[in-house]
Amino acid sequence: MLPGIEIIPLTAIGEVRPHDDLVSVLQNAIASADTHIMPGDVLVVTQKIVSKAEDRFVRLEQVIPGAEALRIAEVTRKDPRLVELVLSESTNVLRAVPNVLIVRHRLGLVMANAGIDRSNIGDGEGELALLLPVDPDASAARISSAMGCPVVISDSFGRPWRMGVVAVGIGAAGLPAIDDRRGHLDRDGRVLEVTQIAVADLLACAAALAMGEGGEGVPAVIVRGYVVEGTPRPAADLTRALAEDLFQ
């Protein structure tokens, strides 16, 4: 727990199904945690339960891989049907080597497998894959409006030159997803020239300490005590413009 900040896991959520009322699910989980939304609370919700509620499931047996998917599948040693889904969700393939497929998602996110998930997505007939929400910022805005608090939708990302995954905010509403401190002064009176704080990512990481990355079954967390200041900005503002891509 960070000084002055409390992380409250919402454990009574269970398996979210397509077209479930996610707001009601979250409200019931908050009541089961014997708490309520307070001023200053931020609700962090995993992408997975948002995608489930929005029925972003695809049955792999219904996917027909094209020639490009077959070619990349041979290189990456991945299921050609999964590769076809990745391509359909992406604008560019950045890296394709054995066991690795890095793409630029249609949302601008650079990520493995276009964020498509096949773990912890519930039982179903046939093989299922789960796509990202169509518009995570819009999803966050709907939840935020109904819950009356800022919302961050989190997902797990790998990072260049670093092992392991961390959580990032792919959707946000009711808070500045990025806090631009350029022009402010540091403690020595120097003008900050490049400092921009990825607030949504920091909140997602804090929440991930309670959520876990495996079978913990904690898909939502209240972060209490973080002071939210500034004009709300969506998580899309965290995506670096393609013209500023330093690694092309």
What is the overall silhouette? globular
Radius of gyration: 19 Å
Largest beta-sheet characterization:
5 strands, mixed
Report mean pLDDT, rounded to a whole number.
89
Model regions low in confidence, pLDDT < 50 over at least 5 residues = none
What topology emerges from the helices and strands here?
Blueprint lengths: L5 E4 L12 H11 L9 E5 H7 L3 E3 L7 H10 L3 H9 L1 E8 L2 E6 L4 E3 L15 E3 L5 H12 L3 E9 L2 E12 L5 E2 L15 E2 L1 H13 L8 E5 L24
Parallel strand pairs: 2-8
Antiparallel strand pairs: 1-12, 2-12, 3-7, 4-5, 5-6, 8-9, 10-11
Helix pairs in contact: 3-4
Describe this structure in words.
- With 248 residues, the chain is an alpha+beta fold.
- Helix content is 25%, strand content 25%.
- It has six helices and twelve strands.
- A five-stranded mixed β-sheet has the order 1-12-2-8-9.
Condensed summary:
Helices cover 25% and strands 25% of the residues. The chain is of the alpha+beta class and 248 residues long. The chain starts with 5 loop residues before the first strand and ends in a 24-residue tail after the last strand.
Task: Give the key terms.
single chain; 248 residues; alpha+beta; five-stranded mixed sheet; three-stranded antiparallel sheet; 12 strands; 25% strand; globular
